[in-house]
Amino acid sequence: MADGGGEPDQLAGERATAQFDVDGMKVAWAGSRHAVEVADRMARLVASDPVFRKDTRTMLSRKELFKDTLKKAAHAWKRIVELRLTEEEANLLRLYVDQPGYVDLHWGMFVPAIKGQGTEEQQKKWLPMAYKFQIIGCYAQTELGHGSNVQGLETTATFDPSADEFVMHSPTLTSSKWWPGGLGKASTHAVVYARLITEGKDYGIHGFIVQLRSLDDHSPLPGVTLGDIGGKFGSGAYNSMDNGVLRFDHVRIPRDQMLMRLSQVTREGKYVHSDVPKQLLYGTMVYVRQTIVADASKALSRAVCIAVRYSAIRKQFGSQDGGPETQVLNYKTQQSRLFPLLASAYAYRFVGQWLKWLYTDVTQKLEAKDYSTLPEAHACTAGLKSVTTSATADAIEECRKLCGGHGYLNSSGLPELFAVYVPACTYEGDNVQVARFLMKTVAQVATGKQPVGTIAYMGNIQHLMQCKSAVNTAEDWLNPAAIKEVFEARALRMAVNCAQNISKAPSQEEGFSELSPDLLEAAVAHVQLIIVTKFIEKLQEDIPGPGVKEQLQKLCSIYALHLLHKHLGDFLSTGCITARQGALANELLGKLYAQVRPNAVALVDAFDYTDHYLGSVLGRYDGDVYPALYEEAWKDPLNETVVPDGYQEHLRPLLKQQLKLSRL
Ligand SMILES: CCCCCCCCCCCCCCCCCCCCCCC/C=C/C(=O)SCCNC(=O)CCNC(=O)[C@H](O)C(C)(C)COP(=O)(O)OP(=O)(O)OC[C@H]1O[C@@H](n2cnc3c(N)ncnc32)[C@H](O)[C@@H]1OP(=O)(O)O
Ligand SMILES: Cc1cc2nc3c(=O)[nH]c(=O)nc-3n(C[C@H](O)[C@H](O)[C@H](O)COP(=O)(O)OP(=O)(O)OC[C@H]3O[C@@H](n4cnc5c(N)ncnc54)[C@H](O)[C@@H]3O)c2cc1C
């Protein structure tokens, strides 16, 4: 028993009430027994290495934090080489080091851009250097004046046939590259997106490999202006990353540094487009978006793990006669706010695993020159990225509130997690692309074309446009088919409504613009349907371990029904359900929360996070929260002296003056 009311064995008690096999759930979460083992090994490797300590990170200055990131990255790389880690292991090591840095852009965007847009020859030249970290690369697309609108970028790459070179130039202030991670201080190279101009004609945006810094002393090359764009939201947090600014003053690069898989410029300056779709230019973004979806479940599960464990420890009110107080986790309000987030963490995990499969499948098809599934992959990654990141950012903040005052302390880990996470909502785009894809699909369905993949349900238009849910009791909502039907009907009816209203506008573009808020809601409905469907499909797999599938079935129902409750207006206004059926869904939710309650701590244990990775005194595995909180406070630099710096100059004179006044 901890001193002063903290009750570490409280969590042992919670674990004893679990009605399922936690090891089995770890396998379901990780994807396989092998994945559990590798993740566990990498998490422990990081947690036991003093170089990877992060408990003082929020107290470091920007310069100290950046240097610490360089040190961690170099040390991580050394360990990866020494231990001959596989790609899977290295990725996990990066995850558990838990500090954004230039390596993310090097591996996450620079390398994939060359792989996706470079010719075989270019890949042979650049990738071996990148794989050995002989060069460090970033992804320089966004400019001061344009981010979302990629076609509006201003940087130019003008071909000079006399020298067989491109001239990279930043013609205006707004054309300065602005935001690329790793650009500010670390990168030696970048894939730069610029307008290709040859024979006096502007051929639009293309990618170019450009060296930025000397490989001898890291100084910027002639004509290249480089720097960091300045401090960002939150202490510690994303400030470990050197998001940068870059300007070119007529910098020359050889012609063969244009990424030439999609299109080429010949020695004479002729522009040639190959048979590859031009949208492959955006392929790196598709890749990164699927990793961002996978990351959403990691960030969300961390926040939920902290909030669930702490809610099981924290007690408030309850007994009027001096008996024990109530664990806040027992309050129905706490459960109704927290358990949907727990369910969402599992839902995002499974949809992330599916999206990874989809991406791999599309990539294989692209290699065989089959481009048919690209639009769907683009819409799914863009849509899921947008929905899961927004919901995760909101959820982390909700978990902070659920932890009361202590959640606001840096030592809870939640403020930093939130600050690191929120930019994921901004970078890599929004749902507009999904809405366009949906409108196209509705138009195709009207011509009799049968949609496939995640939009296959739209082919069932006759039924879905007029069906009425048959749910008659609360328990009827446990039937996955009942849930799927109403989510499909809602998504389709919202999309069809939009399409009909657009068709009444003077032009399609005007209609699209006028209806964009509705289109966004239709896109969200479609994406939520995908997440619900993938959760239901996961439950059709063989899931070993006593009680594991039963718990996941409850979480799946909670995930879907809390969305139904939250978006009740959509379901009612499209006539998919009645008000009574909505009330029945809510009734079932209450029952499901009560069933999840004894399993809650074990369900977050199944994430298998070390205390190092969680980085939270509130989320400690042993539940020994209060001594840890108390101890943590004394580590603050403000407590290095008993009497604060500034006392002599600012406090003492004030106090003395008040003394004189009180004597008057
Ligand atoms: C300290 C650490 C120590 C550890 C050390 C360990 C060592 C190493 C170990 C290994 C580590 C590994 C780590 C890996 C980690 C990876 C993680 C990555 C981290 C991620 C960080 C991200 C940072 C952020 C980056 C960025 O933000 S990059 C910039 C992103 N920009 C955008 O997102 C712009 C958004 N804008 C758009 O998306 C636009 O909408 C658009 C450009 C796509 C479209 O605009 P527009 O309509 O004008 O376009 P077009 O007219 O050209 O085309 C429209 C048609 O094209 C289709 N379309 C559009 N996009 C695509 C697409 N992507 N694919 C297919 N098709 C597409 C549209 O649908 C239109 O089609 P239609 O004509 O048929 O309608
Ligand atoms: C932490 C971080 C890291 C980043 N890393 C990189 C990187 O490595 N490389 C890189 O190239 N870039 C990077 N970026 C840039 C990022 O990709 C852009 O910030 C993002 O694409 C959004 O563009 P923007 O900032 O120009 O916003 P804007 O496009 O100016 O958006 C402002 C507002 O307008 C809305 N809006 C814009 N267009 C439309 C539209 N057509 N319809 C309706 N609403 C619209 C947006 O939704 C938003 O609400 C990073 C950004 C951040 C925050």
Automatic annotation (TrEMBL):
Cellular component aspect of the GO annotation: peroxisome
Location within or outside the cell: Peroxisome
Cofactors, names only: FAD
Top-rank lineage group of the source organism: Eukaryota
Binding residue positions for FAD: 142, 181
Domain Acyl-CoA oxidase C-terminal: 479-656
Record-annotated Acyl-CoA oxidase C-alpha1 domain positions: 282-439
Domain Acyl-coenzyme A oxidase N-terminal stretches: 21-136
Flavoprotein recorded as keyword: yes
Location of the active site: 428
Keywords associated with the record: FAD, Fatty acid metabolism, Flavoprotein, Lipid metabolism, Oxidoreductase, Peroxisome
GO MF: acyl-CoA oxidase activity; FAD binding; fatty acid binding
Gene3D superfamilies: Acyl-CoA dehydrogenase/oxidase, N-terminal domain, Butyryl-CoA Dehydrogenase, subunit A, domain 2, Butyryl-CoA Dehydrogenase, subunit A, domain 3
Major site of localization recorded for this protein: other
Family that this chain belongs to: Belongs to the acyl-CoA oxidase family.
Name of the protein: Acyl-coenzyme A oxidase
Species the sequence originates in: Triticum turgidum subsp. durum (Durum wheat)
